[in-house]
Amino acid sequence: MKSYDIIVIGAGIAGASVAAHLAATRRVAVLEMENRPGFHSTGRSAASYEPNYGPPAMLALTRASESFFREPPKGFAEAPLLTSRESLFLVTEGQEEACEKLIAKANELGELSERAAREIFPVLRPGHAKRVLLDPNTGDLDVDLIHSGYLRLLRERGGQVFTDHEVKGLLYRDWKWQVATPHGIYTSPMIVNAAGAWADTIAKLGGVAPIGLQPKRRSIGVVPVTGHDDLEDWPLVTDAGETWYCKPQSGKLIVSSADATPVDPHDAYADDMAIATGIDRLMQATTLTVDRLHHSWGGLRSFVRDGQPVVGFAPDQEGFFWLAGQGGYGIQSSPALSETAASLILGTPLPDSVVAQGLDIKDISPRRLTHS
Ligand SMILES: Cc1cc2nc3c(=O)[nH]c(=O)nc-3n(C[C@H](O)[C@H](O)[C@H](O)COP(=O)(O)OP(=O)(O)OC[C@H]3O[C@@H](n4cnc5c(N)ncnc54)[C@H](O)[C@@H]3O)c2cc1C
Predict the structure, then answer these.
(1) Which numbered atom of ligand 1 lies nearest the CA of 327?
(2) What spacing in Å lies between the alpha carbon of 21 and ligand 1's midpoint?
(3) In what order do the strands lie in the sheet with 82-84?
(4) Which one of 4, 99, 259, 264 is at 20 to 30 Å from 29 when CA atoms are compared?
(5) Owning domain of residue 14
(6) Which residue has its alpha carbon closest to ligand 1 atom 53?
(7) How many Å lie between the centroid of ligand 1 and the Cα of residue 196?
(8) Do 193 and 49 have their domain in common?
(9) CB neighbour list of residue 139: distance below 8 Å, 6 or more residues apart
(10) What is the pLDDT of residue 354?
């Protein structure tokens, strides 16, 4: 048996980032079922940083993460983690209420005339939007750099990552977990459940009450755009009702109908109908004609009923820590979320940046779900 202070299950962004913090003072192992870290949600995101997107706790954690992305610790990454890209919110017929909700929770949203909007997004179809809002503080994240930065930090601190190690059994006995994998049993007094869409599956293995996690599939299509030399400078464009979005990526445009189809945890693939709907909405909102799909992918965004993340010790089981339910915001919030989780695990004060953003720990505690 291999023995550690803490075992983290899952090597996506959640597991990698919290493990990196914990490894500074604890012996940490990360167990990952796939043959490489980041195979599931982390490797399939739209890679956006949107500080006005998400439920209240996620807004606080995302905003508290900005300084890390803009100025990561020395040696964390050799290129910028966050590159600015503005976002446009188109408010179409019937989206007035959604628009008011957006304005109520957002910081620093500006309003643009259609003409001004067309200066930064020249293909906007005239008359399509009743109003256009601009968020100047959004950007593109380099997910691979962020994820690999945390994995490197973890290893530098003596932590270990074991791939092809699916957790198949969990037993808590004599104040220790026995974690069964195809390569033997690992033990530790504490496990961190960072298994993404499978977090409830892990809980059930250990006899812990599930949190009601629902994975939802989202599909992204990549389409070629010709005749627009300024494509890379276009903003992310969405509508106030979040029914579609597009943004430039590597010389093409990614487009999604913002689908959120409830599914069981699995290796997700794109839904053709959802992609077609996204392209149709893109063509309604713009003067672009799309006649070819370059490629597509699908991924899972996992939510509990109130949409807020689940971070804290299970109320019904010693030594079991939840780090789940990051929905569509798990990358943009990862620096502050992982620091917060590590401070709860180690019993140290919450990070100042998170306190300054007004995060209420009760809003992310698993107690709100299992004891209500
Ligand atoms: C299409 C799409 C677009 C998105 N866009 C954005 C965006 O623009 N910005 C943003 O911030 N977020 C975005 N997200 C959300 C973001 O990707 C997720 O919130 C985040 O990746 C979740 O990270 P995770 O580590 O919890 O999950 P995962 O990356 O899925 O990691 C969980 C890991 O646990 C492992 N695992 C599961 N079961 C076991 C087991 N039994 N044993 C061992 N290992 C196990 C899995 O193999 C997996 O590697 C998007 C998501 C999708 C799908």
Answers:
(1) 19
(2) 19
(3) 48-49, 139-141, 82-84
(4) 264
(5) 2-64+143-212+306-370
(6) 299
(7) 5
(8) yes
(9) 48, 49, 69, 82, 83, 84, 85
(10) 97
Series of mean pLDDT values for 10-residue runs along the chain (372 residues): 96 99 98 98 98 96 98 96 98 95 92 97 97 97 98 98 98 97 98 98 98 98 96 97 97 98 98 98 98 97 98 97 98 98 98 97 94 45
Q: What is the 3-state secondary structure (H, E, C) of 252-308?
A: EEEEECCCCEECCCCCCCCCHHHHHHHHHHHHHHECCCCCCCCEEEEEEEEECCCCC
Given this model, what pLDDT does residue 1 score? Answer: 80
Within a domain: 236 = yes
Short-list 132, 138, 192, 158, CA closest to 9? 192
SS3 label, residue 43: helix
Q: Are 31 and 9 in contact (CB under 8 A)?
A: yes
**CATH of residue 97:** 3.30.9.10
CA distances from 152 to 2, 73, 77, 140, 145 (A): 22, 13, 10, 22, 10
Rounded Cα distance between 151 and 16, Å, is 6
- Name the token pair of 67: 């300084």
pLDDT at 180: 98
Distance CA 147, CA 330 (A): 11
Global pTM exceeds 0.70: yes
